[in-house]
Amino acid sequence: MAQPLVKKDDDRDDEADYSPFLGIEKGAVLQEARVFNDPQLDPRRCSQVITKLLYLLNQGETFTKVEATEVFFAVTKLFQSKDIGLRRMVYVMIKELSPSADEVIIVTSSLMKDMTSKTDMYRANAIRVLCRITDGTLLTQIERYLKQAIVDKNPVVASAALVSGIHLLQTNPEIVKRWSNEVQEAVQSRAALVQFHALALLHQIRQNDRLAVNKLVSSLTKGSVRSPLAQCLLIRYTSQVIHESANNNQAGDRPFYDFLEGCLRHKAEMVIFEAARAITELNGVTSRELTPAITVLQLFLSSSKPVLRFAAVRTLNKVAMTHPMAVTNCNIDMESLISDQNRSIATLAITTLLKTGNESSVDRLMKQITNFMSDIADEFKIVVVEAIRSLCLKFPLKHRSLMNFLSNILREEGGFEYKKAIVDSIVILIRDIPEAKESGLLHLCEFIEDCEFTYLSTQILHFLGIEGPKTSDPSKYIRYIYNRVHLENATVRAGAVSTLAKFGAMVDTLKPRVFVLLRRCLFDNDDEVRDRATLYINTLGGDDAVVETGEDVKEFLFGSLDIPLVNLENSLKNYEPSEESFDINSVPKEVKTQPLAEKKAPGKKPTGLGASPAGPPSTVDAYEKLLSSIPEFANFGKLFKSSAPVELTEAETEYAVNVVKHIFDGHVVFQYNCTNTIPEQLLENVTVIVDASEAEEFAEVASKPLRSLPYDSPGQTFVAFEKPEGVPAVGKFSNMLRFIVKEVDPSTGEAEDDGVEDEYQLEELEVVAADYMLKVGVSNFRNAWETMDADCERVDEYGLGPRESLAEAVNAVINLLGMQPCEGTEVVPNNSRSHTCLLSGVYIGNVKVLVRLQFGLDGPKDVAMKLAVRSEDEAVSDAIHEIVASG
Amino acid sequence: MESCPSIKNILLLDSEGNRVAVKYYSDEWPNNSVKEAFEKSLFSKTQKTNARTEAEIAMFESHIIVYKFVQDLHFFVTGAENENELILVTVLQGFFDAVGLLLRGTVDKKEALENLDLILLCLDEIVDGGIILETDANVIAGKVASHSIDAAAPLSEQTISQALATAREHLARSLLK
Predict the structure, then answer these.
(1) What is the pTM of this model?
(2) Does A81 contact chain B (CB < 8 Å)?
(3) Chain A interface includes B32 (CB < 8 A)
(4) What is the topology classification, in CATH, of domain B9-134?
(5) Which of A341-355, A722-736, B6-20, B155-169 has the lowest average pLDDT?
(6) CATH architecture observed for domain A626-767
(7) Which CDD domains does its entry note (chain B) (predicted)?
(8) For residue B12, how far is the Cα from the chain centroid?
(9) Strand order in B56-60's β-sheet?
């Protein structure tokens, strides 16, 4: 050998760093690859060079296009060698290089020769390589050989063809589907893996034919499938069939359940587990059906193999969410897993126990967990903290020990996410369990004495400001808060000043003392802290007398900012300093729906339309400007709301029209954005004829035609309706586009003088209740809810009937009401059986409305909903109920 | 596709987390730096665990990962979050034992690198594009080492006896030191 791969002896001393590839370099190896071109091939040497090339690729080195092509061509020369070992390396190398289509042709003939060779190894590998690099055209040429290979008596060859078939099905389904006879034959193969691959391919070929899958499953579940892997597949297909047939026959025994249960006695653990898991995941599984599955999983819990323990505890953890009682039998085994070496297993065991435990076992469990917490990673701790939070909500009487536990772990070392999870949990417990409030607040106070996270300190200070003054002895918190003013960074200091002011505002007896403290803050070296102190001293009254705090001061301190911060930022940027001071009421309150409208736009034709979707200036501001510039509409008053554009034509039609609904107190204006997509036409005098016969409360008062609509430059025409003042009238409108068409000479662009009158039918348009609702969020829903008068609350329950899913039902109601979801409650977690959604908005007439929706699954698909509405006007609360009742 | 068990990657790393041989079957890791980052964090998460006698398991970045260590080599197999853990561990065990047979009992980084061609062929025989090709270590090793796949069985026996011989030799050498 010219260049020995293995250097002996001299490297013995530093064996640790020794590698046969030490100092390897791409350029040098590419040079070496020239040996592939030698007339007298040295198979050993060539193999070594390929190994080096593969090593480089494996380490993440990349070849340029030129280098790859060069190597590829050199490698193809090696097909001349008869050496089997070398040929194997050549196959792997070709797959790694993934040659381009024009390069593939070079090796096709060599590979096709190998594919028909007598040597099984050649046949198997050549099939895999060829199917990997080939495209559809070549496939028809080799199809015959592949079909033969599928039923080849050598299992390796058959498997190679079947696996290649699975890959090819993604790109050339019509060809692979022709092989189903051969594949069916291979399912009966005696070789385990062939059976597995054939079953996988057969199912994929037929997966869209439910009847065929059903037949496949029924015939195979009777026979004996040899391979454990194939048996696992069969279990999966069976559960699919069970799932799909579940809707048809509700009563009686579940079909194929016996098969699944029989698999629990299979000799391969893989199959037992697959079957047990399949049973636990059955739709609406009964406890009788669950029992045998739980029993085998329980046995796995005490296995010596971590993987088995993990698989079992993970599955039981999931079962515990829906059937906690079924898992209680395993509690003793679970408890011994708390000390498991594998912390994933221990965490899963603990959280399962927390779900299945009863009130009496809580204390014992907490003792065990305390020891355990010190030696797991933060990510696991967060899972445990969340489990404890839900446990506490389940057993409010146990709040003392659980709260103590939380405060203990809060004092220990931990990263931000972990601490945040604990603080969030304590905050939730304080909110939901009144008895836990005082102790919880004190725990939080102690925590901020020594808290390294600014974010958490400010959050807690804010929370203290809201909850602290309502406690029996607010004064005891002052010390903790004022300490922050001394010891912390500017952000926390500013937060502490605000909190102090809140105590001053709410607790009149504390006011003089708070003043003293606030005055000291006037000498702070940070602007924000000083500004806040000054502001609060002035708003709170300024003198040391014990005076009651005015309502508007309280509103200022505690009221939520009902303006989206983005809008406020924009308005402040646009504000030009002048005599007139900035008016916060001028900031639009509507949460922008802009991103949604933009998402729709790319679906349309790219010609000009994409650039500006029918050219409407879409912010509320711009609409308002546009409308007030039209004399006919000038006296309609203040624009309440503009809807997102609604398409009235299909995509790709001659004329594209969408409509924006502008709602005023006593009027509605439809703004039709029209685009002419025919280059040979010029439209003139464009109007929309609106038939309002299905909208009784509306009467047309004005319309503004569009004088001319040339190709590809959007224009607007308007129609205005009068409606009863302040009433959320609804109705349907049918629309007809009327215009005069003039031919345009495409070469000169000049229109002919004479035009023809023509009409074009548009889709219907509806004014719905949601159009009278502004999406206005509140930052703290609970506060906002509580400050509203409970007398104006209206509660009722509704059955929504069968629904696709809980999430779908929640979305439907949100869309119906057109309100802003708060605190991310529009997201429904997977698999949940109930959900609470909080909505807020402003109804026409500027009435604030808050809605609390509680959804629950009633039976398998039926959704029930409890709707609680609070608003500033009880008539509006009733109106909201009416919307839902009629929706 | 999801009903068929699939393997996302197979990794063979050394005791410092560097690659010996890796193979990715999923495009969740679009480029080399992402792959390396994944390997690094996976390695640092698992290195302190004792996965020498039995295969261990972990949830990691919403994958299920089974792993086993021997000497200075760390074997990993990654699958989807909802994959049957026992299928994954069968693949891991197949890879692990096949490498043991191919390296004739001396399973360490040096030996693995010196026989990298065998390791790469071994990976090639276990999984094809994410689909499990073979899990029986004897068959895998047979296919890699033999010059004809039909003669798998006798060869593996031969390898075991040779492995024993090598082990004896090693023991003798260490006693002499």
Answers:
(1) 0.63
(2) no
(3) yes
(4) Beta-Lactamase (3.30.450)
(5) B155-169
(6) Sandwich (2.60)
(7) Zeta-COP
(8) 6
(9) B19-24, B7-14, B73-80, B63-70, B56-60
Cβ within 8 Å, pair B149-A120: yes
Contact predicate A283/A245, CB 8 Å? no
**Cα A489 to Cα A485: distance, rounded to the nearest angstrom:** 8
| Per-residue pLDDT at A603 | 36
The answer to whether B87 contacts chain A (CB < 8 Å) is yes
Q: Is the pLDDT of residue A341 over 80?
A: yes
* pLDDT the model gives residue A298: 92
Q: What Rg do the C-alpha atoms of chain B give, in angstroms?
A: 16
From chain A residues 107-166, the ones with a CB under 8 A of any chain B CB are 119-121, 124, 128, 132, 154, 156, 159-160, 163-164, 166
DSSP A582: P
Contacts of B66 in chain A (CB under 8 A): 307
The confidence band for A617, taking pLDDT boundaries of 50, 70 and 90, is very low
**Closest-CA distance of chain B to residue A198, Å:** 12
Instruction: Tell me the pLDDT tens digit for each residue of A135-146.
Output: 777 888 888 888
Which of A21, A242, A270, A273 has the most B C-beta neighbours within 10 Å, making it the best mutation to test the interface with B?
A270
Judged by CB atoms closer than 8 Å, whether chains meet at A85 and B114 is answered as no
- Residue B148 to residue A120, Cβ atoms within 8 A: yes
8 Å CB contact between A126 and A91: yes
Q: Is the dihedral of CA A16, A21, A25, A28 positive or negative?
A: positive
The domain locations on chain B are 9-134
Determine the Cα–Cα distance for residues A139 and A734; give it in Å rounded to an integer.
55
Residue B66's beta-bridge partner residues? B57, B77
Same topology, domains A626-767 and A772-886? Answer is: no
A708-717 pLDDT per residue, tens = 888 878 888 8
The residue among A831, A571, A595, A236 whose CA lies nearest residue B3 is A236
Domain A772-886, CATH homologous superfamily name and number: TATA-Binding Protein (3.30.310.10)
Cα gap A169→A201, rounded to integer Å: 8
A629 sits in the region (left: phi over 0; alpha: psi -120 to 50; else beta) called alpha
More confident residue, A621 or A281: A281
CA A513 to chain centre: 49
- Among chain B residues, the shortest Cα distance to A236 is held by B3
Q: Domain-by-domain residue ranges, chain A?
A: 449-558, 626-767, 772-886
Task: Give the closest of A50, A55, A344 to B57, CB-based.
Answer: A344
Please list the residues that pair with A634 across neighbouring strands.
none
**Residue B174: count of CB within 10 angstroms of its CB:** 8
Proportion of chain A above pLDDT 70, given as a percent: 90
Closest chain B residue to A49 measured between Cα atoms? B117
Sign of CA dihedral A531, A536, A541, A542: negative
Q: Identify whether the C-beta of residue A755 lies closer than 8 Å to the C-beta of residue A741.
A: yes
Catalogue the long-range contacts made by B45-52 (C-beta closer than 8 Å, 24 or more residues apart). Answer: B46/B74, B46/B76, B47/B15, B47/B17, B47/B74, B49/A341, B49/A342, B50/A341
3-state class (DSSP) for residue A561: coil
| Contact present, A655 and A649 (Cβ < 8 Å) | yes
Q: Find the Cα–Cα–Cα–Cα dihedral A616, A617, A623, A625, rounded to 10°.
A: -120
Buried b (16+ CB within 10 A) or exposed e, A429-455: bbeebeebbbbbbebbbebbeebebee
Amino acid sitting at position B92: L
CA A240 to chain centre: 25
Enumerate the residues of chain A whose CB falls inside 8 A of the CB of residue B109: 19
Distance from CA of A837 to the nearest CA of B (A): 28
CB within 8 Å: B113 and A19: yes
Whether A92 and chain B come into contact, CB under 8 Å, resolves to: yes
